[in-house]
From TrEMBL:
GO biological process, one term: ubiquitin-dependent protein catabolic process
Protein name: Protein N-terminal asparagine amidohydrolase
Coiled coil: none
InterPro entries: NTAN1 (IPR026750)
Gene: NTAN1
Pfam families referenced in this protein's UniProt entry, alphabetically: N_Asn_amidohyd
GO MF: protein-N-terminal asparagine amidohydrolase activity
GO CC list: nucleus
Length: 313
């Protein structure tokens, strides 16, 4: 079945401008969402989603109370939630493989919503992008809407704070109004958010994406375990070149939106490159080709199960 707005099937829009003109209430909803205060999320209840990652869980999860992601400029944050089971999946999409990613996101929620006693519907929240010069955001917005239209399930578009409806002018430059979102898994509330903590294994996960890793499911909600990898990369000493470059050069060549990146973007890139130089082969990070697993401790931190010999079964 197609994508629905106010319980009615929508035709594929020719542009995001066309979409918002047809459905003005989406504009108002986006304005209301953008006006909400940004919440700094406590790391001890959070599962953070990096670029080209997704994770799904339910209100029964005792390890994760909030799914969250930020640092989205042209990227879009995609949230699907089932109103009956409360199961939710959050993904950070950059347009690298939209058509294959959307079915994974939907399946992650439906697979956790099989109890017939918990009837409900699938709701979609899209946040991200802005009116960037290259129109990268516009393309991703339309591709995501089209991909959701092709799913067999009824999916109701509730929040659409994307592209021009997520655009603000700051010092004459276009920027995204909302960079990050969180969802309270217990209540279903979706809100603008920021995350000082982006772990576990922030640099390893960034290295996976930097070296071409595709969209990955990083969480097993039944076990309460974050799973990273295994993934592959080979030694590449040439990337050390970037460590000696100034901020403007790194932004120009390694960002899709140089004028809109958060202040820590360049340091994040350099930290990722440094990690790859210190681990030139992925074999050293994934001994025997095994993934890294992390489990929440009683103190609320993520602990590497491999290091401490903890079972993940």
């Amino acid at each position: 079945m197609p994508l629905l707005i106010q319980n009615r099937r929508i035709e594929r829009p020719g542009s995001t401008v066309d979409l918002f003109a047809r459905y003005p209430h989406l504009q108002e909803n986006a304005r209301v969402f953008r006006s909400k205060p940004v919440v700094d999320v406590d790391p001890k209840c959070l599962l953070y989603i990096q670029q080209r990652e997704f994770a799904a869980t339910t209100p029964a999860d005792n390890s994760v109370a909030v799914l969250g992601s930020d640092d989205a400029t042209t990227c879009h944050l995609v949230l699907v939630r089932h109103t009956g089971s409360g199961a939710a999946c959050l993904a950070h999409c950059d347009g690298s493989s939209t058509w294959s990613e959307v079915p994974l996101i939907v399946k992650a929620v439906t697979s956790l919503s099989k109890d017939p006693a918990k009837e409900g519907r699938l709701e979609l929240h899209l946040v991200g992008g802005f009116d960037d010069e290259s129109k990268t955001s516009h393309k991703l917005s339309l591709n995501l809407l089209s991909a959701f239209q092709r799913q067999k399930e009824d999916i109701h578009l509730e929040t659409c704070c994307i592209t021009e409806m997520n655009d603000v002018l700051l010092d004459g430059a276009h920027r995204p109004g909302v960079h990050g979102i969180g969802i309270n898994i217990k209540t279903g509330e979706v809100f603008p958010a920021s995350f000082p903590y982006k772990g576990p294994a922030e640099e390893l996960r960034s290295a996976r994406t930097f070296t071409g890793g595709q969209m990955a499911d990083i969480y097993d909600s039944n076990k309460g375990v974050v799973k990273i990898g295994p993934c592959k990369w080979s030694p590449n000493l040439d990337i050390s070149f970037w460590l000696s470059q100034d901020d403007d050069t790194i932004l120009k060549y390694l960002s899709t939106s140089p004028t809109a990146e958060p202040p820590h973007f360049v340091q994040h890139i350099k930290s990722t490159i440094q990690f790859l130089l210190e681990h030139p082969s992925s074999d050293s990070v994934f001994p025997g080709g095994q993934p890294q697993h992390y489990r929440r401790t009683e103190q609320g931190d993520w602990e590497n199960c491999c290091i401490y010999g903890l079972s993940v079964s």
